[in-house]
Amino acid sequence: MAGIVSFGSYIPTYRLPREVIAKEWGQASLGGERAIANFDEDSLTMAVNASVDALGDRDPKSLAGVFFASTTSPYREKQAAVTVATVLEAHAEIRTMDFTDSLRAGTSALMTALDLVPPGKTILVCAGDSRMGEPDSQQEQNYGDAGGAVLVGTENVLAEVVGTYTVSQEFLGTWRTEEQDYLRSFPGAFETKFGYNRFIAAAVQGILKKCNLTPKDIACAAIAAPAQRTLQAALRGLGLDAKAQVQDTFWNTVGDAGTAQPLVLLAAALERAKPGDLILVVGYGDGGDAAIFRVTDAMTEFRAVRSVFSQIEVKRLLSSYGKYARFRKLMRKDYSTTDVSTPVVLVRDQKEILPLHGGKCPKCETIQFPIHRICTECGFRDGLTEVKLARRGKLFTFTHDYLTETPDPPTTHAVIELDGGGRVYVQMTDCDSERVEIGMSLELTFRKYHEGYGIKNYFWKARPVNK
């Protein structure tokens, strides 16, 4: 029986209080705060970091597929799923697919994986979204950024699929054309009343009927929603107890995370599930997707690398709208950089850049980065053995750079002594400069480094181990 064998989530550390947005435009605050991707994060990096946690210690070569879902993919024409697969070091003979252009892309990718996963193999489904609401609009307060990942397989299943259900219907609720920078929606309650409410009702009632279940059979329902109030209204008449059976949408702490939201809510539900529980997950957008999972005894031995709830608790507040505007490039400023880009380097050094490979000397066994032909320790001249570097370590030394222009100054350059050997020279992120100290525990996180020649360049940065 196919089902979920692992899962992960990623919530950025930055939060923007909605009152800060409201004050900037003289609006009323919707209350709470929203998660904000750092200036070096996007939908791809958030999906990758969630995927790293979901994969854990499993051999990435065993993956039969990597599916990526987002409405804000970093490229208009280039597959993101293959980048995720490369970072994870999946086998080249693998199915990679992007799901996009709909809020239910995350659940659609999940259901496709459940249909396609071969016996004994796994398919990784990941999603990330960083949607832009137009400045001086309610959407700007509403949207939040996050990533989620689910590993689907047939062995050691944590939650086996009971059934899936989909209803599709043409509907202009929220949309964005090629020419539009921001999402558009019809004013008033048109989308909620004639779109969201109907699609959620159809998906929930359809899956329960298909699986011959009643609402009371559901232990927890993870239902995507643009806001908590909207969800509560949609639940009327469906027989689900909003307080006892329905997973909170995290709207007050994260916001509407788009395609990633149902995967994040599913992760939160699974983190607290018990064997035998029936978990319902629902996504919407031009219709609705629904799936029901039955939690197995294997869940008692599983521990998420980072729980959704712990990530929500660890945060840094953005106190000004101006800093958020710099993160989102709402204010035009050309940051000078000497960094250059070329596809040639990205091909030549791909394993050093994306999955982070270093070299190990066959003679003295010193691990070093980048990979040299001659060992820097003993002078061995016949080349190094390629090895995958650890993702955790301690800060060896650092410097704060106040001269390099950045949306989040200062830039902290650091040398990290990795667990198992080797040192890497990287930038630090998600850490106030006064907190940086030699010897602190750090983990590597996949981030954007810079853009040049029309290319988005990704690499690894270091952040404190505090999630």
List keywords for this structure.
467 residues; alpha+beta; Peroxisomal Thiolase, Chain A, domain 1; 2 domains
* CATH class membership of the largest domain: Alpha Beta
CATH superfamily of the largest domain: Thiolase/Chalcone synthase
Proportion of residues in helical segments: 10-25%
The beta-strand count equals: 22
- In terms of DSSP E residues, the strand content is 25-35%
Strand order of the largest sheet: 5-4-6-7-1-8-13-12-11
Roughly how many Å apart are the termini?
33 Å
Task: Report the CATH topology name of the largest domain.
Answer: Peroxisomal Thiolase, Chain A, domain 1
Poorly predicted residue ranges: none
C-alpha-based Rg, rounded: 22 Å
How many domains?
Answer: 2
Describe, in plain words, how this protein is organized in 3D.
- By secondary structure, the protein is α+β, with helices and mostly antiparallel strands.
- It folds into 2 domains: 3-327, Peroxisomal Thiolase, Chain A, domain 1 (3-Layer(aba) Sandwich), CATH 3.40.47.10; 343-356 and 391-464, Beta Barrel (OB fold (Dihydrolipoamide Acetyltransferase, E2P)).
- The protein is built from 12 helices and 22 strands.
- It has helices at residues 18-25, 43-55, 81-88, 105-116, 138-142, 190-210, 228-234, 261-271, 308-313, 321-327, 343-348, 350-353, and strands at 3-10, 14-17, 33-36, 63-70, 95-100, 122-129, 146-153, 159-168, 174-175, 184-185, 220-223, 278-284, 287-295, 316-317, 357-360, 367-368, 385-388, 392-401, 411-418, 423-427, 441-452, 455-464.
- A 9-stranded mixed β-sheet has the order 5-4-6-7-1-8-13-12-11, sandwiched between helices. A 5-stranded antiparallel β-sheet has the order 20-19-18-21-22. Strands 3-2-14 form a 3-stranded mixed β-sheet.
- Helix 2 crosses helix 3 and helix 6 (190-210) packs across helix 7.
- It is globular, with a radius of gyration of 22 Å.
- It starts with a strand and ends with a strand.
- The model has no long low-confidence stretch (mean pLDDT 94).
